[in-house]
Design brief:
By secondary structure, this protein is of the alpha+beta class. Helix content is about 35%, strand content about 30%.
Length: about 170
């Protein structure tokens, strides 16, 4: 079920848009959990209650970006499917790869390509994001998005750990 539209980092199960040196943005964040969970289970827990700040950020993003021909994404739907297959949509992302320990999601347009890979190895869960920009707008878009993205993923992982610690 390997897709050639992404690159697998050497000695890992992490998918990116290419070797790290060729990316315009790369972020990998990992947490250690008490019990292993699948990437899809992690997605479901994280997206069960997206933060109001994130929802506002998506509205602002859609308002500004749509003026430059970028399709609106609308944010997250709060749904958590039990199964997902390559080619299906998970919110605004296209599922590019799905297995028990890897979930690879993409969003691609004329300005930039984004690939997010959620991986689970033993009790470690990682979210890795990579971006390749195609033009000036894509590069300008990433100026505020890159630092915001890191904070958002950090908060996702923190909330996931807190939710699982309560159960």
């Amino acid at each position: 079920m390997q897709n050639t539209s992404f690159f697998t980092l050497p000695n890992t199960n992490i998918h990116t848009l290419g070797p790290i040196a060729e990316l315009d943005f790369f972020d990998k964040q990992t947490i250690l959990l008490e019990e292993p969970i699948s990437p899809l289970e992690a997605w479901g827990i994280i997206m069960a209650r997206p933060s109001p700040i994130l929802e506002l950020a998506f509205r602002i993003r859609d308002t500004i970006s749509s003026r430059f021909g970028v399709k609106k994404i609308g944010g997250f739907s709060n749904t958590s499917p039990k199964q997902i297959a390559v080619g299906e949509k998970l919110d605004f992302f296209l599922v590019e790869y799905a297995s028990k320990d890897v979930l690879t999601l993409s969003e691609r347009d004329s300005h930039l390509d984004v690939l997010t890979c959620i991986t689970s190895v033993d009790n470690q869960l990682s979210i890795t994001s990579s971006v390749k920009t195609h033009n000036v707008f894509g590069r300008a878009y990433m100026l505020p998005v890159a630092p915001a993205h890191k904070l958002i993923v950090h908060s996702f992982l923190k909330r996931l750990k807190m939710t699982l610690d309560r159960t």
